[in-house]
């Protein structure tokens, strides 16, 4: 699997906000996060644009409403794909 480099206007980590950001994914792991030009790009990386977006590498949003779990959210149309959210999927 080729490495993936996602370019975005900014990235948030637990420690900083990075402008003109790039996140590099190798295999199933985030291998680098930093400012464009300061992060070593792996040879042959597939580059994806998330221009105009903010990315939060490693963040998983587990916030849901409904005590019944996922099934209730699906039935009520509360999943991201039902609310018009746009996501970047490699």
Radius of gyration: 16 Å
Supply the number of helical segments.
Answer: 1
Give the terminus-to-terminus CA distance.
11 Å
Order of helices and strands: EEEEH
How large a portion of the residues is in β-strands, by DSSP E?
35-45%
Proportion of residues in helical segments: under 10%
- What is the total tally of β strands? 4
Structural class: mainly beta
CATH superfamily of the domain at 1-58: Urease, subunit C, domain 1
Indicate the overall shape: globular
Topology-level CATH name of the domain at 1-58: Urease, subunit C, domain 1
Overall mean pLDDT score? 81
Low-confidence stretches: none
Instruction: Please describe the biggest sheet, giving its number of strands, its sense, and whether it closes into a barrel.
Output: 4 strands, mixed
Query: Any idea of the CATH class of the domain at 1-58?
Result: Mainly Beta
Q: What is the correct CATH architecture of the domain at 1-58?
A: Roll
Strand order of the largest sheet: 3-2-1-4
Question: What's the layout of helices and strands?
Answer:
Blueprint: E1 4-12, E2 17-26, E3 29-35, E4 46-55, H1 70-75
Parallel strand pairs: 1-4
Antiparallel strand pairs: 1-2, 2-3
Describe the structure in brief.
The protein has 90 residues and is mainly beta. It has one helix at 70-75, and strands at 4-12, 17-26, 29-35, 46-55. It has a domain at 1-58: Urease, subunit C, domain 1, CATH 2.30.40.10.
């Amino acid at each position: 699997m080729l490495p993936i480099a996602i370019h975005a206007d900014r990235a948030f980590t637990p420690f900083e906000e990075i402008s003109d950001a790039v996140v590099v994914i190798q295999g199933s792991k985030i291998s680098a996060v930093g400012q464009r030009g300061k992060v070593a790009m792996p040879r042959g990386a597939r580059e994806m644009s998330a221009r105009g977006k903010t990315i939060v590498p490693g963040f998983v949003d587990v916030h849901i409403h409904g005590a019944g779990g996922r099934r209730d959210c699906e039935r009520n149309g509360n999943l991201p794909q039902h609310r018009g959210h746009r996501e970047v999927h490699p």
